[in-house]
Each structure stands twice: as structure tokens, then as C-alpha cells.
Design goal:
The chain is of the alpha/beta class and about 450 residues long. It is about 35% helix and about 25% strand.
């Protein structure tokens, strides 16, 4: 049976067995994608063949980037300021499953704003880009029109990250809370207990603070509780950082996906679509969503790369009173270092499969913890590396392969990342002190120069 006939058969069977369920599902999809039931049925019959994702990007093994924006929505102060920003990146492969990365972007990153026409229109926190698009337009889409917020925010992100943003999904707090409740809540394993005395209780145009707290361990969360967990910014016990906040948001995304794709979650689909309804804005079509679903449905969640930009890697903080507000700036004002990281977020599966022993040495001479920083950066990309501490200062970064030929793919990847050749030496003698087999990365002054940020701020 052809794919098209299969889809038609499924639609007919669902309609015959559960007419109300089927119609509610179709109607919910129509509401979500701003179309009608007839168009939804047409998309289901047509299948993913109507999407350029399947026809162009997957066929060419072209990376697909989807930006997610979470904002308060109507009735909230700063209704369209994107409180949460994440890029879902998917790398298709002709053989084997695609690679998937979730890249968190901190809302307080102070950046130039570029519109879809490539013109710089403003500067400020990255979370205002979506709002600027909704309220002022982006140079290509008029203010107030659907997609205006996403068009502006996508352009700003693309300029900063060095990758095209193909699609976006904007989601307000109402959709988030009601969506989680519609699937019966989600299960989250809270890593540590924390208390936040300054959570903004935004049920009106003003946002008074309230106190919230979470205990460590497995717990079931309603939509309201999950939103608090995702948005908390002033928690103690290490949970007041953008890094911790990004990790919690990625946890929630994983939990929602697991619940929706479960047997019980499928039964909640009509309620979920009703909850999302008009509280979601996207430039994706139903055909696009089906193509993405078919592409990633078999991906093991444990293989997903969880990365983010924050003060532990490529950004640094400037707080009141030094700056007018609490901002994050890029160490590298040209953004080239960040672009390179984002573009290299997917290491070849063959190199990761070697399970290499990689040591990072700090030969920068700065004393700024370069090796520890890069252990964290490479850890986000799925590498297990060891901080070997400071060594004598060297001008250039070097990659040394002393694995005896067992980790050559990994050595080549690290060399390509830093743009240097691989130096191959024999493995150390068994029992030799101060040495290890595997791959050694010696960070030089050249690499660390990108992290000596301008103390004038805002460069």
C-alpha cells in the first residue's frame, strides 16, 4: 500500500472508530496551524511530501534549525519578551538516525539586533527581539501580523549564531501551562532542592514577587508548577544561573515529549491541541511538523546534545551598578568563537564512537581556567574529557595523538575544531608518570585570546 493510501486509510479508520476524537484532533490542528479542517485532511493525505524538509533538507543532509520562543502573552508585563529561547538543531544522515541538539540561549545576552533584511535596527537583550518584531515589524513582516515576532527574532539569532533559523515556534505561558495540564502533567527528576524568593507572579500587568521552592527528587508537576520550574531565575543552591535555568528548561522539553508520545499522551491529543490553539505562533506547516516527527521519532533521548551559551563558556556577566541592568556579553565581540561552536555542535558519530581518552592542557598563560572551561564546552558536545591543568605557555594550540592509532578520528575532529594539524607521537610507556595515552589538546595563547573580553562592556 502506498504511503498516501496508508494515511487515507488511517484517517478513515480513526473517523469510523472515534468520530468525536478524530474531529476534535483535526479541528485542533486546524486551529493551531491557522487553517481549516479540509486543509488539515489534505495535509494528512499528502503527508510529508508537501514539506521542503523532506524534499530538500533531509535529501541533501542539510541541517535543520528550529527556534523556540516562550513569552508571557496577553495580560503580562512585557507580553512578548521571550523569557525562554532555545534552538533545536537536527542533522540528517543518509545512513543511521539524525543527530539532535538542544541549544539554550540566555534571555539577558546583550546583542545587536538585525532584521530579516540584514539591517541593524537596535541593540539590547536578545529577549526583546521577538517583542520588537511583534510591536514594530522586522523590515519584511509588518507589526502585528502573524510571524512578525519570529521573523525578527530568527534574524537576530541567525546573525549571532552563524546558522540559518529555518522555522520558529512561539508559545505563551497560557499555552505552556494548559498544554502540560492537557497531557496530565509531566514527571521531572529535580536534581537539587532550591528556594527562589523573587519569582515574578505575573497574573496582571504588574509582577510582584512571590516565593517558590522545589525539593530534590522525582515529582509530578502541573502546568503552573512546571512553568515556575522553567522560569525561576533567583534560586539558591546553584539554581540562580542561566546555565541551571537552561538545564531545567531542557528537562521539561524532554518530559513533555515523552508524555505526548506515550500511549496515554496520544489519547490526550485533542485536549492538548485545544490548549495550544491560538496561543501558539509558527511558520511551520502541518506537512513540516509531520516531516520533523518522522525524522526524529526514533532518536534515543540519551543521544541528544544539550548545550547552551552562558557565563561558564562563551559569555561573561556585567551586573548592576557597573551596567544599567544585569547583562551577559560575548567574550568574543565578533561572535566568531560562538559561531564556530554552534556550527561544530555535531561531532561525527564515528569519532564519538571511539570513546577516546582526551586530556585538555592549559598552555595559554592566562591563569583563567582555560582547560576547565573547555572540558565543560566539549562535555556539552558529548565528549568525555579530562582537565590536565596548566602547562608552560605556548603561542599556538596543538592536538597530539598518542593513542597508537585507536583514536585517530577523535584526534582529527579536535584538530579540525581548532584549525591545526594533528601531531602524532608514540603512546607513552606503560606506567610512565605525568602522561596518558589518547589525545591531548594543548590550549595556546591564540585560542584563549578570544576570551580576553573588552572591559569596556558591550563590544
Amino acid at each position: 500500500m502506498t504511503s498516501k493510501r496508508t494515511v487515507v486509510a488511517v484517517v478513515v479508520v480513526v473517523a469510523a472508530i472515534g468520530g468525536v476524537f478524530a474531529y476534535r484532533t483535526l479541528d485542533g490542528l486546524a486551529h493551531l496551524f491557522h487553517t481549516n479542517v479540509a486543509s488539515v485532511v489534505g495535509s494528512l493525505v499528502r503527508g510529508e511530501s508537501g514539506s521542503k524538509i523532506q524534499n530538500n533538507q533531509v535529501a541533501a543532509e542539510q541541517r535543520i534549525n528550529i527556534a523556540l520562543y516562550g513569552y508571557g502573552g496577553a495580560g503580562h508585563d512585557g507580553a512578548y519578551l521571550s523569557d525562554s529561547i532555545m534552538v533545536i538543531s537536527i542533522q540528517p544522515h543518509a545512513t543511521g538516525p539524525p543527530q539532535v541538539a538542544e541549544i539554550s540561549i540566555p534571555r539577558d545576552w546583550y546583542v545587536p539586533m538585525y532584521n530579516a533584511a540584514g539591517k541593524k535596527v537596535d541593540e539590547g537583550k536578545i529577549n526583546q527581539a521577538y517583542s520588537d518584531g511583534v510591536l514594530d515589524g522586522d523590515g519584511g513582516v509588518q507589526a502585528g501580523q502573524e510571524d512578525a515576532g519570529g521573523a525578527m527574532a530568527d534574524a537576530a539569532l541567525s546573525h549571532l549564531l552563524g546558522i540559518p533559523i529555518d522555522y520558529f515556534v512561539g508559545l505563551d505561558f497560557t499555552a505552556f501551562k494548559q498544554g502540560v495540564d492537557a497531557v496530565g502533567g509531566i514527571d521531572i527528576d529535580v536534581p537539587v532542592s532550591f528556594f527562589d524568593p523573587q519569582y515574578p507572579s505575573c497574573d496582571a500587568d504588574t509582577c510582584p514577587y512571590t516565593e517558590i521552592s522545589f525539593k530534590a527528587g522525582e515529582q509530578h508537576m502541573s502546568g503552573a508548577t512546571a512553568l515556575e520550574y522553567a522560569r525561576s531565575r533567583h534560586g539558591d543552591n546553584g539554581q540562580g544561573t542561566d546555565f541551571a535555568r537552561s538545564q531545567r528548561q531542557q528537562q521539561i522539553l524532554t518530559a513533555i515529549k515523552a508524555k505526548v508520545l506515550s500511549i496515554g499522551g496520544i489519547g490526550d491529543l485533542p485536549s492538548l491541541l485545544d490548549a495550544l490553539g491560538g496561543n501558539v505562533d509558527t511558520n511551520m506547516t502541518l506537512d513540516d511538523v509531520e516531516a520533523i516527527y518522522n525524522l526524529v521519532k526514533g532518536v534515543n533521548s540519551t543521544s541528544i546534545v544539550h548545550a547552551g551559551l552562558d557565563a561558564t563558556n562563551f559569555l561573561y556577566e556585567c551586573n548592576v551598578p557597573t551596567c544599567a541592568a544585569d547583562y551577559l556579553y560575548a567574550d568574543d565581540g565578533s561572535y566568531a568563537t560562538i559561531d564556530h561552536f554552534i556550527q561544530k555542535v555535531f561531532a561525527p558519530p564515528a569519532s564519538l564512537g571511539e570513546d577516546p581518552h582526551v586530556g585538555i592542557e592549559d598552555g595559554s598563560g592566562t591563569g583563567n581556567g582555560a582547560s576547565a572551561r573547555w572540558v565543560g564546552i566539549f562535555g556539552d558536545l558529548g565528549w568525555s574529557t579530562q582537565d590536565l591543568g596548566r602547562v608552560p605557555t605556548t603561542s599556538g594550540t596543538a592536538v597530539i595523538d598518542q593513542s597508537g592509532g585507536t583514536e585517530t578520528a577523535a584526534a582529527k575532529w579536535f584538530a579540525a575544531y581548532f584549525g591545526v594539524p594533528v601531531t602524532t607521537v608514540p603512546p607513552p610507556s606503560p606506567g610512565a608518570t605525568g602522561s596518558t595515552d589518547g589525545v591531548i589538546v594543548v590550549l595556546g595563547q591564540d585560542e584563549e585570546s578570544a576570551f580576553n573580553h573588552d572591559p569596556g562592556y558591550g563590544s
